[in-house]
Amino acid sequence: MTTFDVNAILSSTAYGSDGDKIGKVEQVFLDDNSGEPTFLTVNTGLFGAKENFVPVKGASQDGDRVVLPYTKDVVKDAPKVDADQHLSPAEEEELYRYYELNYEGGRTAGTDRDRNAAAAGTAGAAGTAATGRDRDVAADRERTAADQDRRVAAGEDASVVRHEERLNVGTEEREAGHARLRKYVVTDHETVDVPVEREEVTVERTPLNGTEARVDNGVIGEEEVDVTLHEERPVVEKEAVAVEEVGLNKQTVQETQRVEADVQKEQVDVETDADRDLPRH
């Protein structure tokens, strides 16, 4: 991790040891003596509201991903350290102790921007790098004031740079629930009317006048004739047939949610020596 591209890492996204996304890498803190990276700060809150320090030791870089040897919960619960200033030995020791690493005392760490400011003979807190947002407002004001004094002494026009905060609103994906398909059996009672037929016996009598051919030989006696009757009855059979296929489809529904936050901006007032009731030199 000591040989990674600082500019590339500042536009990377940090992931935990379990593969979960933690947040965007905001700053890289370098050792004052060796110049090697010692800490990263990772944005773990909404709208950039919270940065947490993570030791570089054990981390790896994979393109635009930084894989940390800690889970997201561990990083989010790290001790709160002001990310806008130079780290003190006590703060470093507290962070090393939290992450269960051996602390080599006597060294402090600052961002690469902080190191450049020290080389130029100015003192300031650590600022952001390659993020487009100036987090080191106090240091900027100090440098601006010194530059204005130089311009006034040289007879040049004086100016100030006015800053204001803007809301950078984004979204994050989270698990909202589960949908399951469960098949179960219910019993319905059905009634069906089925038409059926059956045979019935009717008695038909035909009078004879005595001249018809005799089929009984004129013998009087008992006789029995058997007739077979038929009828239909309903027969019920059941079979299982496929009637419908039910599936689940995911779709993305877009809606608008309102977020509110307080932002600060700078205003510029002009003040002369007469306003301050001070003698002019």
UniProtKB/TrEMBL annotation:
BP GO terms, sorted: photosynthesis, light reaction
GO cellular component, one term: plasma membrane light-harvesting complex
Residues covered by the PRC-barrel domain: 1-74
Region span, Disordered: 107-156, 255-281
Record field: compositional bias (Basic and acidic residues): 132-156, 257-281
Span of domain DUF2382: 162-270
Compositionally biased spans, kind Low complexity: 117-131
Pfam families assigned: DUF2382, PRC
NCBIfam families hit by this protein: YsnF/AvaK domain
Protein name as catalogued: Photosystem reaction center subunit H
Organism name: Kocuria varians
